[in-house]
Structure formats: C-alpha cells, structure tokens
Amino acid sequence: MARSRTGTKLAADFARAMAGMPWPGAVAVSGGGDSLALMHLLADWARRTRRPPPLVLTVDHGLRPGSAAVARNVARRARAAGLRCEILTAAGPAPEADIEAWARDTRLALMGERLGRRGLSALYVAHSRDDQAETFLMRLARGSGLDGLAAMRPLAPFPLPGFEGLSLVRPLLGIGRAALREDLSARGQGWLEDPMNADPRFLRVRIRALLPQLEAAGLPVARIADAAAHLARAREALDLATAAVLSRALKADGQGILLDAAALAAAPREIGLRALAAVLGRVSGAAYRPRFESLERLYDRILAGKLGGGATLQGCRIGPAPARKRVFGPPTLSVIPESSPRRAAKRN
Fold first, then answer.
1. Of 60, 43, 293, nearest to 189 (Cα)?
2. What are the contacts of 323-330 at 24+ separation with CB within 8 A?
3. β-pair type (122-124, 167-169)
4. CB-CB contact of 256 with 335 (8 Å)
5. Count of CB atoms situated within 10 Å of the CB of 264
6. In which element (H, E) is residue 207 found?
7. H helix runs in 29-176, sequence order
C-alpha cells in the first residue's frame, strides 16, 4: 500500500514537472537507476496523456569491457516497456585525459544527431534533485561564479554547438534519487551501478560520499538544491541586465565583435563579467563558459587598461581595436577567434 501511495505521488509530481515541456522526445538511458526510472515515468505519462511514446537512446562508449552488453540490456528493458530503443556507438578511441568530458560530449553529439534524424526536438535526461545538489557543491569547490552555482534548468538549449533548435529537458530536478529507486523496486525492476560512481578519483563521487554527513549537520540535499534554485532566479534577472548592456556595448565585425570596454567598466562587476563571458562564447562558439578565475583575470586587465598587445581566453583573442575600427572610441576592444586569418596574417 505504501508503495502505491508513493507511486501515485511520484506520478503526480512528474506530471506537474512535464507541464509545458516539448513533446515528442527521446530519453537518454544508461541502464542506471535514474535513467531507467525516467524511461518508465515518461512511458506511463505518454500513455495516460495519449501522446506518442518516447524514443529510447543509449550510447556504447566502448570505455570498458561489457559496454556493448549493457547497451543491449537497455534495449531489452525498453522493448519490455513497449518502447523502441536505438543503440548509438562512439567512434574512435577515447582520449587519455578528461575522459568524463569526452564521454559527455560524445554522448550528447550522438544523441543530438539522432534527434535531428528522427525529427525530434527534445532530449530528456535523468538529472535528479540529488544531482542538482552535487553539481552545486562541485562547482562551489571549483570556484564557479553565480552562473555555475545556479541550478540546472528544467528546460535548456542543447549544450553543444551545432544543434540549435534542440532542447535538453530535466523533469526530475524536483525529485529525489531515493524516490526514483523506490519506484523502480516497486515495478520489480533492477538497475546497473556504474563502477565510476564508486571511484574516489572523481570529484562527484567524493562529494556524494559527503552528503550524509552534511545532512546530519543540518544541510540536507533538498536545502542545497533550493539554494541553487534561488541563484537560478537571480541569474534570470542578471541575464536581462546583461542583455541591456550588450545591446549598446558591442558591434559585429565579421567573425569577431567590437566591444566597448568603457561600458563593461561602468556596469556592476557581475554584469560586466557576464557580458564579457557572453561575448567570448559568441565569438568562440564554445558550449561552456571559461573558468571564473580566468574570466576575472581578463576582466581586471581590461578595466586596468593592461591588455597590452592582447590576451587569449576560450579560443578568442582580445585586444585594442585598430584605429579604423574604434566605433566606441579609444576603449574599443576587438574580440576575434584565436585562429582568425587576421591573426595569422600578423604572424607572416
């Protein structure tokens, strides 16, 4: 009976989270508890609301023996739930360093390509409230600014360049991992535990091990996730203020941007930093912002007038604009791709 009440509450919470979300879509499933729970919740929700079922996507990265068998197991579980599953295979060897980032970007790229091929616009992923809290603490440990500490968004643009028009959807951000595992158990469903989730070399694993101690000290996962959500609301307000500054502080210049350093200096520091990060991202096409410490160092050099011949960050070169391009007067900066032909010409 308790399981039934729990399942009913979870279904109601999930239905509220799905309100207004794009559909039809695909769901990323690794075989772990969270993604399998999301697969079943989406399948149930689609049946109840008479919508098309989700397409299940799983990726074989080839990172360890048995990965192909794991992908086939996901496909079997999807078929048993009445869903179609497509297995995507990573091509080429994994790098020796930063394997986590490579695996994430490879997975997203493969799934984004398949979404486009199938005419779908949304990829559903199983980030839970626990993931929200863990991500907040990881980014806090790495010295992230407000954007990094702010909550993951329930509905966000696809986080890789080249996939404009696609969305990443996280309907489980308000639901705890324990509730998802309890729901799977009530369905008689097991799940796989990724060995990487027990490897203390990874920061997320070390953070996860600390969560019970933080809860015992009066800082539960829900409170940490709430703090991230509060920062997300602040981020939305700052986004509007940043857009206002950029509307009068930049001018497109071929592949690059001409930027008014005086406008950056006149803005509140947080707005100026965000505006600079936005310009770098627009010019480089990078999916992620630079490390906050690096961004601050560049910003302080700009404000102090100490760029000299220029600086580089996030694949961009930032320096004083040539006289003929000083559309904002002497404070005009030129931000161009680091591999820009103009830079290459100066070397020759």
1. 43
2. 325/253, 325/258, 327/251, 327/258, 328/249, 328/251, 328/258, 328/259, 328/260, 328/261, 328/262, 328/263, 329/262
3. parallel
4. yes
5. 23
6. helix 203-216
7. 33-48, 67-80, 99-118, 129-141, 146-149
DSSP H/E element including 10: helix 2-18
Q: From CA 41, how far away is CA 124, in angstroms rounded?
A: 11
The structural domains of the chain, ordered by start, are 2-127+170-219 (3.40.50.620), 231-347 (no CATH)
Can you tell me the distance from the alpha carbon of 331 to that of 282, in angstroms, rounded to the nearest whole number?
20
**Per-residue pLDDT tens over the stretch 99-132:** 777 888 899 999 999 999 999 999 999 999 999 9
For 258, the enclosing helix (H) or strand (E) is strand 256-260
State pLDDT tens for residues 313-341: 999 999 999 999 999 999 999 999 987 54
Would you tell me the crossing angle of helices 67-80 and 33-48 to the nearest 10 degrees?
A: 20
**Which residues, 6+ apart, have CB-to-CB distance to 89 below 8 Å?**
59, 60, 62, 110
pTM: 0.80
| pLDDT for the residue numbered 5 | 63
In total, the chain counts a number of residues equal to 348
pLDDT digits (tens, 9 = 90+) for 187-223: 999 998 877 777 888 888 999 999 999 999 999 999 9
Query: Is the Cα torsion angle 300, 303, 309, 315 positive or negative in sign?
Result: positive
Burial of 262 (0-12, 13-18, 19+ CB in 10 A): middle
Instruction: Report, in angstroms and rounded to the nearest whole number, the Rg of the chain calculated over CA atoms.
Output: 23
